[in-house]
Amino acid sequence: MTSEKIQRVGVIGAGMMGAGIAEVCARAHVDVLVYEQTRELAAAGRARILRSLDRGVSSGKITEREREQAAWRLRFTSDLGDFADRQLVVEAVVEDEKVKAEIFAELDKIVTDPNAVLASNTSSIPIMKLGIATTRPERVIGMHFFNPVPVLPLVELVTTLKTSPAVSQRAEAFASEVLGKQVVRSSDRAGFIANALLVPYLLSAIRMVESGFATKEDIDKAMVLGCAHPMGPLALTDLVGLDTVKSIADSMYGEFKEPLYSAPPLLLRMVEAGLVGKKSGAGFYEYADNGRAAKK
Ligand code: NAI
């Protein structure tokens, strides 16, 4: 039955996004199995989710009991073979086409339910490139969540030339009815809707810093106070991760060959230096305790 309610979700990767996706699924009463490459990374992922649930309790968004129940619904594994019974898998590993395609090829061999939905949270990689790594491209779809996942209400649904309408309906029903997210639909072009608009803007801000046109503080202040953005482009680049912004720019440049999508040298040098933003403790700004308190 294609319309069978999704109750067993698998999330691949417990980085910033995978942890957030796992958390919102667990909070929505879904059984969640999270894959990480090693037990150490899995433990770090679990701790990340528990910290976020704690913040949910202290800000009054969830009760103590809801936190306990969500924590109970989360299991971790470092064996992808454990995903055999999953009805929906959301892949959220590093923005690298080769790594993601290998994971989809593996999943294809592992997931037994022929009606399972295989989704990627990629920010920019055309979904067809992942679909063709499987023998069931009609079951493959983009489900692009936004950071932080428990806070931002949007999911971009990306269907390919092969995605079956039943898969798209099932993914949309899960995102909206189970997770309570708003859904927008995009065609399968690198960057989809939001990043096709956002990333050139972030890259322009980095070019402004690089050329000495204005300070990072003034660039961010201009957009916060002048355009009512909740944060400026350089703080947002730090939040997304400079490595991820570079990878998104690369895949959009690869698709469109537009200079506005090409990663500026300052971004490349900062990624090479490990200054990848909040998650590493430093990017355009410095952060104490891996991003919990920024000092500017
Ligand atoms: P992250 O750096 O926090 O986490 C990366 C994850 O990939 C970790 O779980 C890591 O263990 C895993 N990983 C790295 N190399 C791997 C490999 N060779 N094999 C298997 N797993 C590997 O990154 P983040 O931000 O969570 O991004 C994950 C995905 O979500 C990317 O596709 C990214 O484009 C997308 N995304 C990111 C957003 C953001 O604001 N950072 C927003 C929306 C989507």
UniProtKB/TrEMBL annotation:
Please name the source species: Rhodococcus indonesiensis
Q: Where is the 3-hydroxyacyl-CoA dehydrogenase NAD binding domain?
A: 9-188
| Pathway(s) where this gene product acts | Lipid metabolism; butanoate metabolism
Please give the family membership noted in the entry.
Belongs to the 3-hydroxyacyl-CoA dehydrogenase family.
Which SUPFAM superfamilies does UniProt cross-reference here?
A: 6-phosphogluconate dehydrogenase C-terminal domain-like (SSF48179), NAD(P)-binding Rossmann-fold domains (SSF51735)
Keyword annotations of the record: Oxidoreductase
Name of the protein: 3-hydroxybutyryl-CoA dehydrogenase
Q: Which InterPro entries match?
A: 3-OHacyl-CoA_DH (IPR022694), 3-OHacyl-CoA_DH_NAD-bd (IPR006176), 3HC_DH_C (IPR006108), 6-PGluconate_DH-like_C_sf (IPR008927), 6PGD_dom2 (IPR013328), NAD(P)-bd_dom_sf (IPR036291)
Keyword Oxidoreductase found: yes
Q: What region holds the 3-hydroxyacyl-CoA dehydrogenase C-terminal domain?
A: 191-287
